[in-house]
Amino acid sequence: MSDRTLAALDGVTRTYSGVAVLDEVSLSVGTGVTAVIGPNGSGKSTLLGVLSGAVEPTAGTVRYPEGGPRSGSEKRVGYLPQRVPFRDGFTARETLGFYAALAGGDPDAALAAVGLSDAAGKRVADLSGGMRRLLGIAQARLGDPDVVVLDEPTSGLDPEMRERAFRAAARAGDDAAVVVSSHDLDLVDAHADAVVVLRRGRVAAAGRRERLLDERGVDDVAALYRAVAAGTDGASSPAGGGAEEGGESGGADAESVHVTGVSDR
Ligand SMILES: Nc1ncnc2c1ncn2[C@@H]1O[C@H](COP(=O)(O)OP(=O)(O)OP(=O)(O)O)[C@@H](O)[C@H]1O
Fold first, then answer.
1. Per-residue pLDDT tens over the stretch 114-147
2. What protein family is recorded (predicted)?
3. Residues in contact with ligand 1 (CB, 6 Å cut-off)
4. Could you give the C-alpha distances from 236 to 61, 71, 88, 215, 231, in angstroms and in order?
5. According to CATH, what is the number of the domain 7-84+148-259?
6. Which of 72, 138, 192, 221 is the most exposed place for a label (fewest CB within 10 A)?
């Protein structure tokens, strides 16, 4: 259990062709699972890309108070992008061996952690979509980084595989900050400690899941999403108040959203 901040975005803006797809986003994450949700195009992948170090912010800063994305040869941030560039001809074990040579870690332990030990000798080309996703999660967790960033690890999977993939992702949250984007609101409801709702590149709500549900008077994350992401609560007006720091609602374009200490479940 820890309240320590492992990654933080301060006033991050990212533009493409002059259009801000992330607009002054500030938040910090600690151990536990933080789910980033929001409509298509709201900026989730861009936010995760910035957090992982793969996407440069146009303005603002990304901080890893305890070191990262790499400290010396040590990998401090693991990243599963939406499209994983694995080589079809490699086996699952060889794939993780390749990444372990770059970032450290034990490929066999990483395979075991996501339940893929029996598939170690299978070629990537012969893995199902779900197994590829699990391999991707194993790759992101390799070397036990402090921050694990997973972009839609459950997309396109059947219900059983979705559950398995999300559980595998969430398990890393015991010791690391796991930040996962997802449209699977039932899984977010079941496994996320904290939730960030993005709308049009801005944070519309953020904080511990239970607190957000309480504050909005809703029963689950799907209802929270309908209220906040769809904009039925007026969250887009710049009402000023911070989220967690102000002790009030995590909505209203919170200028500095705090999502640390999410592991006290
Ligand atoms: N490399 C890029 N070049 C130009 N525009 C981009 C680039 N990456 C993202 N965008 C634009 O930024 C906006 C946000 O995209 P992003 O992928 O971050 O959203 P998202 O919330 O992850 O969407 P989805 O749920 O569909 O995956 C979109 O309008 C997208 O077209």
1. 889 999 999 999 999 889 999 999 999 998 899 9
2. Belongs to the ABC transporter superfamily.
3. 16, 21, 38, 40-46
4. 23, 38, 44, 17, 7
5. 3.40.50.300
6. 72
